[in-house]
Design brief:
There is one protein chain. With 376 residues, this protein is an alpha+beta fold. The chain has helices spanning 21-32, 67-76, 87-114, 116-131, 139-153, 163-170, 173-181, 183-190, 204-220, 233-246, 254-262, 264-276, 288-303, 320-341, 364-367, and strands at 2-7, 37-42, 55-58, 61-65, 159-160, 197-198. Helix 3 packs across helix 4 (116-131), helix 3 packs across helix 5 and helix 3 packs antiparallel against helix 9 (204-220). The protein is globular and about 45 Å long.
């Protein structure tokens, strides 16, 4: 039996077992190919040698990580959803998968992280609950920052409300009461400035997504799957992305409305696959303590300039113990200082601001593989 290590899910009630489309795509591939597998939800990518999830293991050995590598391995094991495709269809499949990973990820990131109402009311609270304290204090905001940086680098910007709009809204007693009740979360969202990102369908990111959805809709047409009556790797990838647009309940659901109203065959396609996705066999989940422990371990290894993923005996390096103690002590001082200054807070208290651990502790890959478009 294979073990799939995947980012966890705040959407289990909706029948989704990760918040990462690459992880959902592999889960779907394993399910539709009838492989025997077990799902492990984790909060750190330390199980993978290259810090990339999803990761597939067999026994104690890490076989492959990343969507394409896992698919190639499963193909060699006899689980090949593309077995009936000819060369031209394989080329088409690769092209459409690239289109999905390049076009739809931006729209998904924008909708989740840059639309303020969605992030404050739905995404951030769910991610905070998923990762647990203390990771909930910085990971949701850091994910938002990574999404914003990616989108800005691609020339995609959100709509920022003007001061007049903000002042006008504040004149309403109802809106004022609403804002006061949400001050802690909004402050984390805005940091040193208040920004209201509107989910306007005229934003270029939605136009880009619409072109991709239109191409997929025409390719699917009235077929059950993209290449006929049997699912392929393309079907698993499309479902991995569209399921995160269709099934999570968001205050502003522009993407869901676009798919349901303008591309109903894609919505029906996702519903067909969704109905086949039985709850996976679950292995032990990694709790927040294990996640923090793995990060401390990685920091110690980096500090000691070691290549191995296991800590050697202190007899091999007489100074290693003191180095590890120094790193652990530094992290303890960091958390103590942050809590004392109000940068971090224990559950139930207000946080004055938010901050992220240094990038050398949590890298982009170690946080969200979807930032890379779900490919590796």
């Amino acid at each position: 039996m294979y073990s799939l290590y995947s980012w966890g899910s705040p959407f289990k009630a909706e029948g989704l077992y990760s918040f990462d489309p690459a992880c959902i795509s592999i889960q779907t591939y394993l399910q539709l190919s009838k492989a025997e597998w077990q799902l492990h939800n984790v909060s750190s990518a330390s199980v993978s040698p290259n810090n990339c999830l999803p990761a597939l293991t067999c026994g104690q050995a890490v076989i492959e990580s990343g969507f394409w590598r896992i698919v190639e391995f499963l193909k060699s094991e006899g689980y090949d959803l593309n077995a009936d495709l000819d060369e031209e269809q394989l080329s088409q499949s690769t092209a459409y998968i690239s289109l999905v990973q390049d076009s739809l990820v931006d729209a998904l990131l924008f909708s989740w992280y840059l639309v303020s109402e969605n992030f404050v009311e739905s995404i951030r609270p769910r991610l905070a609950k998923l990762f647990g304290f203390p990771l909930s204090l910085f990971i949701p905001t850091q994910l938002r920052d990574h999404a914003e940086h990616r989108l800005e680098s691609r020339g995609i910007h959100s709509v920022v409300a003007t001061e007049t709009d903000t002042a006008s809204e504040s004149n309403s007693s109802t809106n004022t009461a609403f804002l006061k009740s949400k001050i802690p979360r909004i402050y984390l969202l805005a940091k040193d400035r208040f920004k209201s990102h509107e989910d306007k369908s005229t934003n270029p990111v939605y136009a880009q997504a619409k072109k991709c959805l239109d191409a997929l809709s025409k390719k699917l047409d009235k077929k059950e799957y993209f290449f006929g009556s049997k699912p392929t790797a393309l079907d698993t990838v499309v479902y991995g992305y569209l399921s995160l647009m269709l099934y999570p309940d968001l205050p502003q659901s522009t993407l869901k409305s676009m798919i349901v109203e303008e591309f109903p065959n894609l919505s029906e396609f996702c519903d067909r696959i969704h109905a086949q996705m039985e709850p996976p066999s679950m292995g032990p989940e990694q709790n927040w303590a294990a996640g923090v422990g793995s990060m401390v371990k990685q920091s110690a290894l980096q500090f000691a300039s070691l290549r191995s993923y296991s800590l050697p005996s202190t007899q091999d390096d007489p100074e290693l113990a003191s180095k590890i103690i120094s790193v652990a002590g530094a992290l303890g001082v960091f958390f103590g200082y942050a809590i004392y200054k109000g940068i971090l807070s224990v559950p139930g208290t207000r946080s004055k601001t938010s901050t992220a651990l240094p990038s050398q502790v949590i890298t982009t890959n170690d946080i969200l593989s979807v930032v890379k478009g779900g490919s590796s």
